[in-house]
Write a structure and sequence with these properties.
The structure holds 2 protein chains of 2 kinds. Chain A is of the alpha/beta class. Chain A has 12 helices and 14 strands. The two termini of chain A are 40 Å apart. Chain B has 2 domains: 240 residues, no CATH class; 119 residues, D-Maltodextrin-Binding Protein, domain 2.
Chain lengths: 323, 376
């Protein structure tokens, strides 16, 4: 059985009246790519900062590699790599110097450090940019430099806090592949994001956080099984009679039918051949329709059903800007 | 590992564009402007450095006339003499054409329109002459052939005495602008100090957070950062001093090594001040810069960077400010080196600056150590 790398018990963090973390619990095993999923302000970054002893918390206990985490626990800190949400590199140092500087905070031996720095540069694909200053790098390259600075010392636990914000799709894919390769090489990963597609793509286990609480935890399939929705059918139809909607709604596995903006959205819970039955009702009633989609539930559906709101509430605008 | 930190912290500081602009080029431009602005005044003072005096001969004194002739001729005459009658002499004095009148009688007397260096030189000359006159008279009687040599010797003695009094350090008021300019560059180290403090605090910058989660002790990274900040600023101070002393050839005395050392002392004080400001409270990095810069400029203003007399005005009305104002203390270091032969006052001012440095640094560390990050 794999060892516990991170154990958070009953963590409470208050900012005056606001409770940022409300009896938050988490256990992450060795070799996992663990996703912390939640909207902006849900407590993901606060949880990470408490985990790293950057923030004092009001109550609870944090253990990393079986040891109590404190600001002075340098043995544990030596095994951690951190990639912050904001790029944390020096504008005045070149790509090589930045990686060497941060690696030097962990590795004192010059030769080992040089080897590690070269490997980190190769890992991030920055070989052609070693003498560049960060301001000369594109957003994607800058993010890759940020990651290289965080992983150059070969940590056993890597914490990535929204590492793909403001990154082009090509760099994003490269970063995600890199994270998976770090995991394959033995590192345990904690990955926070509000991009559910990324979390679904790379995480072996996911915790959904809302209002400082861990509202659900499991693999993506386990999470999807927690909710009522198993299939969402969307049919383009300009006009749908109320009687038709009632007929569809009366089907055994349909629990919600909504018609708006020329789209009929039907949510089903279990059952087979739901789509065929619905299309049959539409044909029988001579209701014209266009394209038809059938989708499996997403993490957003999971989040929506568990918390009563969409995962990207309050972050849509950010996402548009960032992308 | 400490040297590794120090190296990169120094590179970060020295490569800041603001540093090159504000800390290196701005003082050079300002020093050049001061030089151009005061250049004419320097020239004038040099040409008219001899003291204009009127001599009223109530009785004739040939020996006095001979001594006076010696002192009012040559390459660097001490006096510019006008022989005239009492009425005209008094008119010249009223009009400011002469600074003193000497009345040659059995007893030498003088009058002056105001107090100051010139009348005191004239007074000391008369005292010297009166004391030595007996020797001259005796020589005239006993060894008339040596009279000329004795008169020459007396003239030299008076000249040397007065020259020494004049040039024992650069006493012109404009030199204080240059002292304060160097003090300003040293105190600009406060921005580097803020830079150091904020880049080591996890709640103020992502870089600070990354440093805080590393296994390197915070004290070690902070000290490396602080030393590097001071070192980068020392480079700037040395450039300013070199430019002022060796390019503009402003006379700051001959204790050059001590002048550079004073620059180092001042820079430590400035950097530690910035470090202290950077460590205060939970305010943003930009606000901290917004505090450090005005503190530096107000300190320099009170020390006389914009108005040369400011320091003496404060000295008259609130002397404690001059004893606590780091810019005033730094400029005082240069003043002490230029004016005084002994180091007692210099050591006192240095000690005050070093105590300030220790207090600011220790205060900064305490504030940083006790920090509870409210939000990141």
């Amino acid at each position: 059985m794999s060892e516990t790398v991170v154990k958070i018990e009953n963590l409470v963090k208050r900012y005056k009246e606001l409770i940022a973390l409300d009896h938050f619990n988490l256990e992450i095993k060795e070799g996992e790519v663990f996703g912390l999923l939640g909207p902006n302000g849900s407590g993901k970054t606060t949880a990470i900062n408490c985990l790293l002893s950057l923030l004092e918390f009001d109550k609870g206990n944090i253990e990393i590699f079986g040891e109590k985490m404190t600001p002075e626990n340098y043995k544990v800190k030596r095994e951690i790599g951190i990639i912050m949400q904001n790029v944390a590199v020096f504008d005045e140092l070149t790509v090589y110097e930045n990686i060497d500087y941060f690696c030097g905070l962990y590795i004192s031996d010059k030769e080992t450090r040089k080897k590690y720095v070269d490997e980190a540069i190769a890992f991030a694909g920055l070989e052609s940019f070693t003498k560049f200053y960060p301001k000369k790098l594109s957003g994607g390259l800058l993010r890759r430099l940020n990651i290289a600075c965080g992983i150059a010392h070969k940590p056993k636990l890597i914490i990535l806090d929204e590492p793909t914000v403001a990154v082009d799709p090509q760099s994003r894919n490269r970063i995600l592949e890199g994270i998976q390769s770090l995991n394959k090489n033995g590192a345990t990963i904690i990955y926070t994001s509000h991009y559910m597609e990324e979390v679904e793509q790379i995480c072996t286990r996911i915790a959904i956080i809302d209002k400082g609480k861990n509202v659900a935890i499991g693999t993506k399939d386990e999470l999807k099984k927690m909710i009522r929705n198993t299939e969402t059918i969307t049919i383009e139809a300009l006009r749908v009679e109320e009687s038709v909607k009632k007929q569809i709604n009366s089907l055994e596995h349909v629990y919600e039918t909504v018609h708006s903006d020329g789209k009929l959205v039907i949510r089903c819970s279990g059952g087979k051949h739901n789509l065929i039955k619905i299309l049959g009702i539409l044909s029988e009633n001579d209701t014209p329709f266009g394209r038809v989609y059938s989708e499996q539930p997403t993490l957003n559906d999971v989040f929506l059903e568990i918390t009563g709101k969409a995962l990207r509430d309050g972050s849509d605008e950010n996402n548009k800007e960032e992308n | 590992m400490f040297l590794h930190n120090l190296k990169y912290e120094f590179l970060q500081n020295i490569r800041q564009k603001e540093l090159i602009g504000w800390m290196m080029l701005f003082p050079i431009v300002l020093a050049t402007l001061f030089y151009v602005a005061f250049g004419n005044i320097y020239e004038k003072e040099k040409v008219f450095s001899e003291i204009d005096i009127a001599v009223v001969e109530v009785t004739k004194d040939d020996i006095f006339n001979t001594v006076l002739d010696e002192l009012s001729t040559g390459d660097e005459p001490l006096f510019n003499v006008k022989y005239t009658d009492r009425e005209n002499a008094e008119k010249l004095l009223r009009d400011g054409d002469v600074l003193s009148i000497i009345y040659v009688d059995k007893e030498m007397t003088m009058s002056a329109a105001s107090k100051g260096l010139a009348p005191s030189i004239v007074r000391s000359f008369l005292e010297q002459y009166t004391n030595q006159k007996t020797i001259i008279t005796e020589t005239a009687k006993t060894n008339p052939d040596k009279l000329e040599a004795v008169i020459k010797s007396l003239s030299n003695e008076i000249d040397c005495m007065n020259t020494k009094q004049l040039s024992n350090g650069n006493m012109d008021p404009y030199i204080t602008y240059f002292y304060n300019l160097i003090a300003m560059v040293a105190l600009f180290g406060s921005t580097n100090g803020v830079f150091s403090a904020t880049r080591n605090q996890g709640n103020l910058s992502a870089i600070g957070a990354r440093k805080c989660v590393s296994p390197t002790h915070k004290l070690k990274t902070t000290i490396a950062s602080l030393l590097a900040a001071a070192a980068a600023q020392i480079v700037c101070v040395f450039i300013s001093i070199t430019y002022i002393v060796f390019i503009l050839r402003i006379d700051m005395g001959d204790k050059i090594a001590m002048i550079y050392l004073s620059g180092v002392t001042g820079t430590f004080a400035g950097t530690s001040l910035g470090f202290f400001i950077g460590s205060i409270g939970r305010i943003s990095e930009s606000t901290k810069y917004g505090i450090a810069f005005p503190v530096t400029m107000i300190s320099c203003f009170l020390s006389g960077l914009m108005i040369a007399d400011m320091k003496s005005i404060i000295s008259q009305h609130c002397p404690v400010v001059n004893k606590l104002n780091p810019a005033a203390l730094i400029s005082d270091l240069f003043y002490c080196l230029s004016i005084y032969d002994d180091y007692s006052r210099y050591i006192g001012v240095t000690a005050t600056l070093l105590i300030m440095t220790v207090l600011f640094t220790a205060g900064g560390f305490l504030l940083t150590r006790r920090k509870k990050y409210a939000s990141i």
